[in-house]
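Q: Here's a chain of 239 amino acids. Please give me its 3D structure as tokens.
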Amino acid sequence: MSEAIKLFQYNTLSALMAGLYGGTLTVGELLEHGDLGIGTLDSIDGELIVLDGKAYQAKGSDGVPTVVEVSPDVKVPYAAVVPHQAEVIFRQRYAMTDKELAERIESYYDGVNLFRSIKIHGHFAKMHVRMIPRSTPDTKFAEVATRQPEYTQENISGTIVGIWTPEMFHGVSVAGYHLHFISDDHTFGGHVMDYIIDEGIVEVGPVDQLDQRFPVQDRKYLFAKFNMNELKEDIEKSE
């Protein structure tokens, strides 16, 4: 019997939305659990992109998007990684919008209640991303999201990585696609808003188990009070 493919998720999106921005797990520890994934950095300082076992930070400062490789000692408050193993691979040979490609990807799903890992490498006619700006816990995530920088690049090659989450796990993560992008030359990236793909290779990986870890040493997390209705609204506004 083959070994189960585990999606490792540290903390929950709801905790992040509630203002628990402090990093409590190192990137080095995170990468022990997977080679592909997404997340954010301490103090929600930009977007975390995990590709081929390396971690990158995409952020926008002074009107200029930047991408840097993240050292193993940097901490994260929220992230999800998986040892990606493509179960479905297909070539996208003609232009599609993000919504059109999403429909094609989902046509390969054998059910709607399992997580999936997503990897798309290709050339994009347009890539529209945003980066959450560094903030403090006294500012709600949904409020921070209203002033996050957005950037669009045309005719760019790179890789989309991320997770597709079933509806029943909304709040643990965001239901549907949570995707981040990094260009081949590692100069542009972020949280994917929308795109047009010219052509590329699409990989969809299975997830057999969810390994949900919590910041058990973080007293702010242990005693935080969550308004779930408000948090769900904030997730919809922000994502």
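Q: Can you summarize the key feature?
A: The longest helix spans residues 228-238.
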